[in-house]
Structures are given as C-alpha cells and as structure tokens.
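Researcher: I'd like a candidate sequence for this fold, 404 residues long. If you have to choose between options at a position, lean toward the conservative one.
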C-alpha cells in the first residue's frame, strides 16, 4: 500500500499538547534493548532537534507575527516530542556507551542512505563520509575497553563491524575542501532532499553531543579524542549541509523538514520490535502529519505554490537499519585513500591538505593514533569486531585476523 502524507490529516494540532506524566517515558533497558532501537532513538532525537532549531532560525527572519505564533506553537510540540524521544535513552548508560551507539548510527544510517541514493554525486558524498565515521567507531571502541573495561560488542552486537576505516588522522582537511556542490532543487529527486536533511541532522546532533560531553572526562586521552573527533564532526556537518540547495525558500525548507519527520517516523514504526517504542513512533507520526498539513498551508499562502511541487506524492522505501558489512568492506577496499579537493575527491595528498595536516598535527601523534597505541600496550592488541573475515585492506590487517 502507498502512503501519501499530503492527504493524511493526523491528530489535530490543538490536541497535541501533552502533560508531564505523558512526557516522563520509561527509558530503554541497556542490557535488553535491540541496538537498532537505540539507533532509531538517536536518529529521531537529532531530527527533532534540527526541526526545532530550524524553526527558531526561520522565526528570527520572519516579520509576520501570525506566522511567528504558528511556528512557536508547532515548535513547542516538537520540543515535547524531542524530550520523549531523547528520554528513552538509558540513564545508566555511560557517555562512551552512548557515543559508540552514535557512531553505529552514523555508520549504518549513512551506508544505507548511500546505497539508496539515486544521485551519483550525493552518493559519493555519503560514501566518503561513512568511512570516516566507521573509523571513529573503531577509535572509541578501543577507548571504551581501556577506560571502562567493557567491549563495544555489548553495544553494537554483531550488527556492525569494528575495525579501521579511513584513518582519523587524515580526516583533518582545509575548510575550503569540506564544501560540496549543492543539488539543484528544481531537478533533484525528492528522495535526495530527504537523504541530505537526514544525514545532516544526524551528524549535527553528533557534533553537538561531542562538544558538550567531551570535557566531562578526567582521562586526558578521552578528552583529547573527543576534541579531535568533535572537530571532524564539524567538518562533516559542513560537508553534508552544503549539499542542500541554498536557493530553497524558507517555506520549501519548512515543508521538507515536516515531510522528512513523517517519513522517518513512518519508516521506524514499520520495523520497530519494541512495542512501547513503536507506540511512540506511531503517535509522533500522527502528530507530524498535522504539522505537515499546517506547513503546507503556510507554503500555499506565503510562497504561492502547492507543496506537491517540491514533495514526493508518496513516501519512499522506508529508511532501514540493517547490517551493511559487505557494502562497507567494498568501500574500504576501493575508497579508503580518498581525500577532498574543492568540491571533488582525489587520491593524492595535495598541498593545501598537507599544509593543514602539518599545522594541526605538528610533530605529535593525534589522540586517534595514541588511543590505539595505548590499547595495544595495555591489552597486547587492539579491539576489533571482524565477523566477515580479515580487513579488506591488507595493510590494515593484524596478525590474529579476528576479534578477541
């Protein structure tokens, strides 16, 4: 069956306010939760935060008090949704445990979107970024065992492999080379707009999370690793946000945000195994449908266009969390040595890249390299999960060729 959110009404806006009891949801059990349920929670938290911040920015440029009031009301509802979603995360989970889940999101969400992306240039952007988040997962997993004496397998299960990606040390590029070419809003597939907004929002939330939690650690190596990877997440937000056509009107962006929330809540509702969490996805879907209708009405009034001109008439194939091991191994074997130059990609370390590398690293190893050295010294090797065999890049294999 097709699902056209442009004709679905959902729960009326004036019935969407919830009381404190309804907002105080029962958190997930970290020992029993499906890893991909936690991933879906992290994604929707980032999506809701992006929607809230976009609404604030739109309100700051809007002179019409009626529109500002409408945005404020919907934004309040979105803020309640964000609290419910984020409060699902287990309160007893450590920051590093949650960090590893964030990186699992980045790996398997971005890989799935890359597989589904119809535009070759956008697809390449996602393939490039995912190999860097894949490496971040590996670095944090080694830090996790060093600091907490716990294994990342407890968080990611065997759904996502843990091994080196494009080395984090070479992720530091000149800011000019993190800006990509945008899609053309008039010709791009509507699915591509949803993909760009989704990955941008998820990476933005990861950037925000690392900026805030990094200083909470006492261990120098942990603080230093969060500094380093936090800087790269900022690069990733630049990388992904630049894919969005800056010519989109505020009203276009508004309906894209609301449509994307409908798309993701619907996607996650169809695959969620936890009945309590599934009920939240279904409730929020029905709330977002009415919020989308309100945004479409604003677009008709103030942009003079029908939302059907920019939105898909029916929801695309649901966004799916699933293992992407074979795809990631293919990318590791073919794209690990890429870097960026201008809006494109090259395999050679060009002058601008080398100059920034020298400026930021100097003569010292960055934290991302030292954390692996420290783990090897302490445990006699590094932490990996290699369920599909040795690393596809021979130079990155280890003698034992497997997970301890």
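Model: Candidate sequence:
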């Amino acid at each position: 069956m097709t699902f056209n959110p442009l004709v679905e009404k959902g729960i009326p806006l004036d019935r969407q306010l919830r009381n404190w009891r309804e907002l105080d949801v029962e958190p997930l059990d970290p020992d029993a939760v499906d890893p991909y349920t936690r991933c879906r929670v992290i994604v929707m938290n980032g999506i809701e935060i992006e929607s809230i911040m976009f609404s604030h920015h739109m309100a700051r440029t809007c002179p019409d008090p009626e529109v500002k009031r409408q945005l404020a009301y919907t934004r309040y509802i979105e803020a309640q949704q964000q609290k419910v979603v984020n409060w699902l995360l287990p309160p007893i989970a450590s920051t590093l445990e949650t960090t590893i889940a964030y990186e699992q999101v980045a790996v398997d969400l971005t890989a799935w979107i890359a597989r589904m992306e119809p535009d070759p240039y956008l697809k390449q952007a996602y393939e490039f970024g995912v190999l860097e988040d894949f490496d971040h997962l590996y670095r944090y997993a080694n830090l996790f065992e060093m600091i907490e004496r716990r294994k990342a397998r407890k968080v990611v299960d065997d759904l996502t492999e843990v091994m080196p990606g494009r080395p984090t040390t070479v992720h530091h590029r000149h800011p000019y080379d993190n800006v990509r070419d945008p899609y053309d809003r008039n010709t791009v597939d509507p699915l591509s707009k949803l993909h760009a907004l989704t990955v941008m929002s998820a990476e933005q939330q990861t950037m925000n999370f690392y900026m805030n939690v990094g200083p909470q650690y006492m261990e120098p190596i942990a603080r230093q690793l969060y500094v380093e990877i936090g800087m790269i997440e900022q690069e990733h937000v630049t990388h992904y946000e630049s894919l969005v056509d800056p010519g989109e009107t505020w009203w276009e962006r508004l309906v894209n945000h609301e449509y994307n929330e409908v798309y993701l809540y619907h996607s996650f509702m169809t695959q969620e195994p936890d009945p309590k969490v599934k009920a939240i996805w279904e409730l929020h879907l029905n709330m977002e449908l009415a919020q989308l209708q309100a945004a479409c009405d604003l677009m008709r009034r103030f942009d003079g266009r029908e939302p059907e001109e920019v939105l898909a008439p029916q929801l695309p194939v649901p966004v799916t969390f699933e293992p992407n091991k074979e795809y990631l191994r293919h990318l590791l074997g073919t794209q690990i040595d890429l870097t960026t130059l201008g809006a494109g990609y090259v395999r050679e370390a060009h002058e601008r890249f080398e100059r920034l590398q020298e400026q930021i690293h100097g003569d010292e190893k960055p934290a991302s390299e030292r954390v692996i050295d420290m783990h090897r010294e302490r445990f006699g090797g590094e932490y990996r999960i290699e369920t599909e065999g040795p690393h596809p890049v021979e130079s990155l294999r280890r003698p034992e060729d497997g997970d301890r």
